[in-house]
Amino acid sequence: MEARTRITILMLPPAAWLFLFFVVPLGIMALFSFRAGSFGAEREQFTLENYQHLLASPAYANLLAQSAWIALLTAVIAVVLSYPLAYYLSFRAGDARVTLLTILIIPAWTSFLLRILAWKLILGSGGLLNSALLSLNVIEEASPLLIYSRTAVVVTLVYVWIPFSTLPIFSALERVDRRLLEAAADLGCTPWQAFLRVTLPLSLPGVLAAFFFVFIPTLGEWVTPALVGGAQGVMYGNLIQDQFVRALNWPLGAVLSLVLMALVLLLILAFNRFLRVSDLAGA
């Protein structure tokens, strides 16, 4: 009983913190979703018209689907690029792995906004990409080739999330027992066959973790599309931000937020279904 009491006492502060700053605001946002308006006398009226408006407008569902596609593409590309990097750090870097891993993480120490603005300059008409193409005589005059497009959004997001997607894959590869690879070699497997039959299956928990770590937060992204996406790179998060800040339609913004949260919860359930936390923490 004493151990259980100590655990309860230790859990009370974080539980109270989560309740006050997560559950309560979430409940307030849920109440806002049933209001007829954010301001004025009609704001106290409870109605379902916001949900009806959402269901009657296919544009919202289409934008959510487009955002999901951008998040999916970003997660897949980030995982594909991160796996060789994590494999090199785990199997080939030797004593330099910690140094190289630190170098990989260092860009994440700088401001997220500054990194996005840097890519805006790189992809712009006077940026590094256009300067390189001009010097190689590929183009005759500077032009915004990738900026303000979905491609720019994906490229920037992949750059942002590669360090974070590399870490779980690296952790999974570090837990691979090297004796299994030696046994595979003794049984006649080539290095490529040993990778496909031993290393890759054992590292799949890290791959799935990296995918979900990128896909779930990217789904609600709005800063990157706002800076480098333009009109063609708008995502679902930009719509939510516009409803709260520009249109001042908080009820509709709350409905859109709850829909996105419901989708994220489904993804988290899928994450828990295919990957246990113990798989990430190791034995």
Describe what you observe in this structure.
The protein has 13 helices and no strands. With 283 residues, it is mainly alpha-helical. The protein has a single domain, classed as MetI-like (MetI-like fold, Orthogonal Bundle). Helix 1 (2-32) packs across helix 12 (250-274). The two termini are 28 Å apart. The model has no long low-confidence stretch (mean pLDDT 86).
CATH superfamily: MetI-like
The largest sheet is: none
Give the helix tally.
13
In the CATH classification, which architecture applies? Orthogonal Bundle
Name the CATH class. Answer: Mainly Alpha
What is the number of beta strands?
Answer: 0
* Broad structural category: mainly alpha
Query: What count of structural domains?
Result: 1
Give the % helix. over 70%
Order of secondary-structure elements: HHHHHHHHHHHHH
**Mean pLDDT rating:** 86
Radius of gyration: 23 Å
Proportion of strand residues: under 5%
Q: What is the CATH topology assignment?
A: MetI-like fold
Summarize the SSE layout with pairings:
Elements (H helix, E strand, L loop, with lengths): L1 H31 L16 H8 L1 H34 L5 H9 L6 H12 L4 H8 L14 H25 L3 H9 L4 H29 L3 H7 L6 H10 L4 H25 L2 H5 L2
Helix pairs in contact: 1-12, 3-7, 3-9, 5-10, 7-9, 7-10, 8-9, 9-12, 11-12
Give structural attributes.
283 residues; mainly alpha; MetI-like fold; 13 helices
